[in-house]
Structure formats: C-alpha cells, structure tokens
Amino acid sequence: MFVFEFMRNAFLASTFIAITCGLVGVFVVARNLSFLSHTLSEIGFAGAAFGVFVGLSPLNGMLLFTGASSLIVGTLSVEKSHREASISAVSSLFIGLGILFLSLSNKNASYATNILFGSIVGISVAEVNQLILLSGIALIALLAVYRILVFDSFDGVGAASQNIHRNLLSMFFLILLALSVSIGAQIVGSLLVFILLTLPAASAQYMGRSVPSMLAFSLGFALIGVWLGLYLGYVTNWPVTFFIASIEVVIYLLSLIYNRWQTN
Amino acid sequence: MHKDSILDIEHLTVRFPDKTVLDDINLSIQRGTMVSLIGENGAGKTTLIRTILHQLKPTKGKIIAHPGAGRRHLEIGYVPQFRNIDTGYPLSIKSFVGLNRLKHRWPFYLPQEHAALISALKRTNLLKLQNIRLGSASGGEKQRAYLAQALVNDPELLILDEATASLDVKAKNELMTLVQQLNQSDQLTVIFITHDFELAQKYTQRFMFLNEGKIETGPVADLSEKFLEAHA
C-alpha cells in the first residue's frame, strides 16, 4: 500500500499526530480537560470552515480559531462550577458558525464531511511537512515545562504550595492543547480528534503507575490506533476514523478489565 | 534575634483591604524545635504560613531566615491541608513523592535526585509500599506520602498544615511519632498547625497562639491556660 503517495503521506502525518496527541493527552486526562478538548475540536471545525471561506487552508483556519478560543476560555472560566456551562455555550456558537461559513463558501457536503470526520486522501507533502513542524513545536513546548506541568497536573494542591505561576502554566497548556487539536484533526477529523487526545491516555492511566510509563503506554496506544486504522481503512475502504475510534475503545475496555483484574 | 533561631519574624503586619490579619507580630523559632500553631479558623494561621512561604508579601515588617551551614537559602517543606486523591488516582507512591522535584528541567531524574527520592521514602517508612498506587493506600499511608513529598528536597523546616485532621487516633499518633523521630534524628524544625490540643501537648515543645492578629508563645504546658484566657 505504500506505493501510493497519499498512503505514505497519511502514514507519516498520522504517526506525528499520534505522537503529539498521545503525549499531550496524558495531561489532558490528568487535568480533567477531556470535555474542553472536545469543545476545542468543534471550534476547530468552525475554524476550518472559516479558513475555507476566506481562502486559508483548513489547518491554518483551525490553528487561528482554536488558539484564540483557548485564550478566551482560559481567561473566562477559571471557576470549575461555571466551566461546563460556559464551554457548552462557546461550543454551540462555534458549531453554528462552522455551518454558516461552510454554506457561505459554497463548498459541497463532502468537503464538510472531510473536515468533520477526517480524510486520508487529501494530504499533500507540504501539509505533512507543516504537521511535522507543528508537532515538533508542541513537543518542544511540552518538554520545556515538563516537570512543572507533571506536578501541577497530578498534584494541583501540592504544586499550589510551591511558588509556581499556575495560571500562566494553565494558559500555556491550553494553547498547547489547541495546537494538538488542530494537528490531530487532520486525519481523524475535528469531531473525533478528542478520541486521540483522551482515550489512549485514559487507557494508559489504568496501565502505568508513573508519568513516563503512562506517556509510553499512551503513545503506544495512539500509534497502534492510527497505524492499524489506516491499514484496515486501506484494505476495506471503510472510513479510517471508524477503525481508529473502535480500536481505541477496545484498548480502553481491555485496560479497564486489566485494571479490575489487578486490583482484585 | 535569638541565638540559633531558624526563623525570625520582626514586626510582621499583613493587611488585606478589609482587615488586618497579622498585626505587628514578633516571633523567633528555634532550630530543632517542634512548635504548634494554634488559633480559631480565620485567626490568620494560613496567612502567617503563606507569608513564611513567600506566597504573600508582608505589608510591614520582615521574616529573616537563617539557613544552616553550607546552605544558601532556607529550604522549607510544606504539607498542605486538603489533598484530592481519590481511589482512581493512578500514580504510585514513589512517583507521587517525586513530583516535588523542580530544580532541574530534565524529564528524567538525575542520579542524586533518585537517591534523594529513595531517602525520603526510607525516612517515612514507605520503601516497601513505594510501588502501590497512592489511590489505594490507607489514610495514614497517604499522609506519610504527603510528608515524604515535602521531605524530598531535604528541608530544614517542615510545616504540617492540619496534617492529622482526617486521621483516626492510631494513625494520628503514628504520623506524629514519625515526625518526632525526624525532628530528633535530623534536627528538623517543625511547625505543626492544629486544632488538636492533646496532640500539640504530646508532641510539640512550644506553642504559638494566634488571636485577633496578635500572637502569643510559650511552652505547651501553658497552652490550656492561654486558651481559656482568650475565651474568657
């Protein structure tokens, strides 16, 4: 299957997507931001539609929207009790906007499907290079704040008693999350990118007992999902996203069973 | 300033827009002692501690720290009051204790950091339990893990914020005995914030009593007297 250029591109792109989302996801789950990552992917959809409308690439449109909105959410909703409601409001607004931009730009329905549910055929070499560059930036950012982020994500109370700029760190992570959402959406689509950001990491929490081992499990699960998903999609001609989602859910269930078995 | 004090607090005043929480406090904490900090809720215990930890700036006055020989600054270990560790918490005790290593940026521990981590586990009798998940540990084991995390940077001063509040009597005494051992064997100075007079009298030598922005100190034997006076 690697004779086809689009498959080579898809494999390369999804490898970097899995690395980024698998690693960043560990912190998404530890910081209880699964719901927010889902919202950011909807905002990403609106961003991609906006990009198409004004003549940007969908990826750049997404980066613009998710980046801006992560800053807004970060400043708006620090209080937990209000967070869910304000996130829901923001999310509804952005899905509406996405539909509006798509209809204004006169693109057909299959284009919308590609943005929402992902597509492996459309990725060019230039886009792959941009994805690799963005992944690199995300990983360097993660590495730069690694220890503080680990402390703050896995023991917020303990981290608060150290002299850490927690709000700044939170904001920094939200931008990192926005970047990861935009990267991940390129293969699995904006509606399902949160699969890669939450499920491998949630499974990894059942398997690992240290942060490095969770990162390794999460990375492994994400890679298995996208690689196997691409292969099965190629063989059956069914949507890749369907396979990735199903594989991650199966891994999650197996991890859950493993954890139950271990604790008993 | 007293001879061999670890912390000297001089004319410390902390004022918030609506009230003066600490009002011209003078205090000296001797190296190697165990002191309890007592006061009603809202008396300013947390404000005092946060000022000592450099999280709040004094409105007036100053806190002078005296680090021991060969140390550049006074390392303070702090065990906060509330921790939200539920049964699903994934990290092992060892990983949890190691979270408090912020001096280096590497994603992996340097050999001397790993040695410090093992030493903190040893000092809190957690070496055998290091690989179990913190979420599945008992209340007393959890408190020991919080203590170990505060010890991992080898502090000279340890501040326990209501560390025994959620424990049963047996676990309370076990934890305090452990703290007392650390105090005696390592010359660790301890500030123990508590509402529990019995524990304060049993395990600490001196008390600091905060009331309406003022502080009174003395040997713990006088504690019940002071308390009754304040409430007369």
Write up what this structure looks like.
The complex is a heterodimer of chains A (264) and B (232). Chain A is mainly alpha-helical and 264 residues long. The relative contact order of chain A is 0.17. Chain A has helices spanning 5-30, 34-54, 58-76, 80-104, 109-117, 125-144, 146-154, 156-160, 166-188, 193-207, 211-236, 240-263. In chain A, 84% of the residues lie in helices and 0% in strands. Chain A is globular, with a radius of gyration of 18 Å. The mean pLDDT of chain A is 87. Chain A has one domain (5-263): Orthogonal Bundle (ABC transporter involved in vitamin B12 uptake, BtuC). Chain B is α/β, with parallel strands linked by helices and 232 residues long. Chain B has 2 domains: 1-75 and 159-232, P-loop containing nucleotide triphosphate hydrolases (Rossmann fold, 3-Layer(aba) Sandwich), CATH 3.40.50; 78-154, no CATH class. In chain B, 31% of the residues lie in helices and 26% in strands. Chain B contains 7 helices and 9 strands. Chain B has helices at residues 45-52, 93-97, 111-123, 139-151, 169-186, 197-203, 223-230; strands at 5-15, 20-30, 34-39, 60-65, 76-79, 157-161, 189-193, 206-211, 214-219. In chain B, strands 5-6-7-3-8-9 form a 6-stranded mixed β-sheet, sandwiched between helices. Chain B has a 3-stranded antiparallel β-sheet with strand order 2-1-4, with helices on one face. Chain B is globular, with a radius of gyration of 18 Å. The two termini of chain B are 33 Å apart. The mean pLDDT of chain B is 89. At the A-B interface, helix 7, helix 8 and helix 11 of A face helix 2 of B. Chain A: Belongs to the ABC-3 integral membrane protein family. Chain A: The chain crosses the membrane at residues 12-30, 50-73, 85-103, 131-149, 169-202, 214-234, 240-258.
